[in-house]
Amino acid sequence: MAAANGKTRLNGPLRYAHITGWGMAVPETVMTNDDLAAIVETNDEWIRSRTGIRERRIANERESSATLGYKAATAALEVADVLPMDIDLIVVATSTSEHVFPSTANRIQDWLGASKSGAFDLAAACAGFVYAVNMAAQSIRSGSINTALVIGAETMSRVVDWNDRSTCILFGDGAGAVVLQGSDQEGGVLSAVLRSDGAGHDLLSIPTQNVRELNGHRLGKMSMHGGEVFKFATRVVDESIRQVSQDSGITLNEIDLIIPHQANYRILQSAARKLGLDMDKFVSNLDRYGNTSAASIPIALCEAIEQGRIRKDDHLVMVGFGGGLSWAAMTVRWGIPEPSSLQANPLNRQRRRAVYALARIRARWNRLRRAWSNILRWSNPRNIRLMRLRRRANREKLP
Ligand code: ACO
């Protein structure tokens, strides 16, 4: 599926979808390669030389994809200076939601107090963030919404098999978020390539329920054929970068920065070699965070902005690949001023804080209200009689 030109005209002026805010959040706990060597038979030298990873962040028991995603989202809203009630859509790309439903996006929508927003999760593994940005951008271009919050959030440490040294060394936890807004100013998301090859579904998977053939894999835990996934990744990254840049009418040399999914430094080196591009064009931070799946691209984007590597009118390419198998690439013409000139309105900052505080109070109030109505329900004489009857029935079943 390809969407080129980055523009749509329905009945009004052309609409473009620009990234106007960004934020990230990672857990404080750092797990080094030496820490891992105390858990499985591995060593720092092997992990560094085969993957480029030195350390990763691991969530504590109070942190989840939702809490990390929420933190990243509040930072992104601050940069964009957008109020929660002005968000039309929240999409969370994740493979590590705590529930099948409610979605992680539902939780974040509630905590933000984004009272007028739709919210859903999107599952496309490590390609999920690019898929999600494209869905949001298409909705903006069509004129059906104006402001979207797109989040990539993962707690991979909860789904890796800590007995499997070939996968547990690769992954980490974190979240990144962007705000997308409609504008008449040309630029923003220019084109996207979204692809899937479901024939490779068993190369990388997390079985959850009703799976007939587990083949030694554990329910709720990730399994991966690393070598096969490696070959797939080195094939599709350069191909999709070529296609997406062609679709948006720019040459490879006109790409200013590539923000790839952070899976393995050798995959990035291979892509750079095949494309004939310098490694300086690729953002890489996997030495510090490992593979954070759908969160890796927005985290890398945030760090690239902070480091001053992105300027107005730069052409960026984001490319993700992973479970599914699925992959996706996107070109963006950066349309907003450099971060140093962006200042959130102090009044709006106070309003955002007030909305978050109110959302927390409302959530506590709702919990209390439900607990109270349960007490009332069970103190109703009919229910008390029912409860006694059930107890008696249970007793009488006993020998
Ligand atoms: N420490 C020490 N030795 C190890 C470890 C380890 N952690 N893991 C494997 N080994 C051993 C293997 O047992 C093997 O030993 P043998 O030769 O005696 O059998 C040897 O090292 C080589 O193993 P390979 O699997 O061939 O190692 P490879 O160089 O392929 O690297 C890796 C493995 C890092 C997993 C690589 O295949 C890879 O990066 N694959 C791609 C992963 C990826 O891109 N995922 C993206 C998507 S993730 C998502 O969508 C959620």
Give an overview of the whole structure.
This protein is an alpha+beta fold and 399 residues long. It has 2 domains: 2-341, Thiolase/Chalcone synthase (Peroxisomal Thiolase, Chain A, domain 1, 3-Layer(aba) Sandwich), CATH 3.40.47; 346-397. It is built from 12 helices and 14 strands. It has helices spanning 33-37, 44-51, 65-80, 104-112, 128-141, 165-168, 226-247, 265-275, 286-289, 296-306, 346-379, 381-397, and strands at 2-3, 16-25, 30-32, 55-57, 89-93, 118-122, 147-155, 173-183, 188-196, 204-205, 223-224, 257-260, 315-322, 326-333. It has a 5-stranded mixed β-sheet, sandwiched between helices. Helix 4 links the parallel strand 5 and strand 6. The longest helix has 34 residues, at 346-379. It is globular and about 80 Å long. It starts with a strand and ends with a helix. The structure holds acetyl coenzyme *A (ACO).
